[in-house]
Amino acid sequence: MAYLSIDKISMHFGGLVALEDVSIQVEPGEIVSIIGPNGAGKTTLFNVITGVYKPTSGSIHFENQPIHNKEPQEIVKAGIARTFQNIRLCKDMRVIENVLLGMHTHTDYHFWDAVFRTKKFKTIELEKHEEALRILTSIGLQDQIHNYATNLPYGAQRRLEISRAIATKAKIILLDEPAAGMNAFETDALLDFIMELKIQGFTIILIEHDMRLVMNISDRIYVIDHGKKIAEGLPKDIAKNPRVIEAYLGRKEENA
Ligand SMILES: Nc1ncnc2c1ncn2[C@@H]1O[C@H](COP(=O)(O)OP(=O)(O)OP(=O)(O)O)[C@@H](O)[C@H]1O
């Protein structure tokens, strides 16, 4: 079984079929992109993987364990974290505090340790700060730790959101349209940054509309249209797949 194995997932909202029998396999260290026209079902798939929605049918296994029946917090603990289409940071909190929030799921002291500020509490808090600093340094935000998240430029806010995902001890990071709202320069920096995450050993699943980014960065691509998987393969093959081209062009005409 694959590292992350998504098997015949369907997701129905009443009569609306958002996903139908979608199967996706991801291996450790891969960058796998999920593309498709607006409303294809991509974000719904992320919501199913992360436990926000329970699938109508199908199964998801991560490291051979079923996760489709687990709560979002349990899935984060298992090692899958995500970012959102619209950046979700605590903007009035400092950069380092946002990263510390991500560590919450793994905090190992009890309520009374915190109340009495026991030695255990102080040791763990110190370790958390050191780890947050290490993550922020690896992500190039070490000079911003005391700045408020809201003051960071857009690209840096995206990186901070990813830092928070890393802080959960994630092994797989799901990125939902990270290049949205970025100019070409910022998108290039993002591409380098995602490649760096891969080198550090993270597995990445990417939803993205920026085809230049997708084609340059992906090991493999899955294409979803109207809730169904219509293609999968290497970027060079996806780029010339007639079904994929039709799905995009057809939708463009619908929107015109
Ligand atoms: N909670 C929900 N209740 C009802 N319908 C939903 C819900 N979430 C998603 N949908 C519907 O499921 C379909 C797929 O939506 P989804 O957001 O997954 O598409 P997408 O591929 O991520 O689109 P985009 O690229 O525009 O973000 C849409 O028709 C959407 O309206």
TrEMBL record:
Q: Which GO terms describe its biological process?
A: D-alanine transmembrane transport; L-alanine transport; L-isoleucine import across plasma membrane; L-valine import across plasma membrane
Keyword rRNA-binding in record:
no
- SMART domains per the record? AAA
Arranged from A to Z, the UniProt key words for this protein are: ATP-binding, Nucleotide-binding, Transport
For this protein, the record's Gene3D superfamilies field holds: P-loop containing nucleotide triphosphate hydrolases
Recall the GO molecular function terms of this protein's record: ATP binding; ATP hydrolysis activity; L-isoleucine transmembrane transporter activity; L-phenylalanine transmembrane transporter activity; L-valine transmembrane transporter activity
Instruction: Report if keyword Chloroplast is assigned.
Output: no
Q: Which GO terms describe its cellular component?
A: plasma membrane
Q: Where is the ABC transporter domain?
A: 4-251
The entry's protein name is: Amino acid/amide ABC transporter ATP-binding protein 1, HAAT family
